[in-house]
Amino acid sequence: NYISALKKGFVLISQNKILTNNDIIAIQAELEKNNAGFRKLPGTALKNAATGETVYTPPQEYSVIIDLMSNLEQFINNETLSNFDPLVKMAIVHYQFESIHPFYDGNGRTGRIINVLYLVMKDLLNLPILYLSRYIIQNKGLYYKLLQEVRETENWENWISYMIDAVEETSKETIVLIGNIRELIFEYKNLLRNNYKFYSQDLLNNLFKHPYTKIEFLEKDIGVSRITAAKYLNELVKSGLLKKQKLGTANYYINEKLMDLLTMNN
């Protein structure tokens, strides 16, 4: 759901480089698979998971939530309202969104998707490839502590530093991951080209489009019959380049080395 919601958001912002409240609602709907929209009923409170103590009560009235989200929408998209560096502004936007807490569910993941989409909007990323969620989840205690610190003391410095650190650390990890994937693609390309007459660039692309493929995927991507696609994939299984796994009635052909790289990163 996270990946499909991120892709949806990327498509929504790609044309005009703006992020509207309708876009944010669509992203959350893709995440949670519901159409509840912004909260209309009171009762939402953020609690300490260990003690059950309420640590923060976000706005309760629907009209207030709408007003605050409208203000946030303007802040995100109207460059004349501030002259902050994009990374600083991303941190401010994230704080505001999480404090408004506009949805019943999925606020955290929606907010983290907004982070990445904002970096795309500001041309700091061409594609939404930074997985900032990993850093935030790994440093979750500090994340919530600093959010609350801004609410209680208006001390923004530590919060902004935390979010910039998240971008820096995740960027470094992503650069390493991309390099490792490129090396693996090169390795597979040489093995396929030197050992299989059916090698093609389209075949290689298919094996790295996702961590797994299926007969029907390959059939479509390289324009062969189902029987031929199955033959090719099973030959790659025999040589250890793929692993075949049956789930229900479907066979999945897993690129385990690619899966390992992605799993280590996430």
From TrEMBL:
Record-annotated Fido domain positions: 19-165
Cleavable signal peptide: none
Residue spans crossing the bilayer: none
Coiled coil regions, renumbered to chain: none
The protein's name: Fic family protein MloA
Organism from which the protein derives: hydrothermal vent metagenome
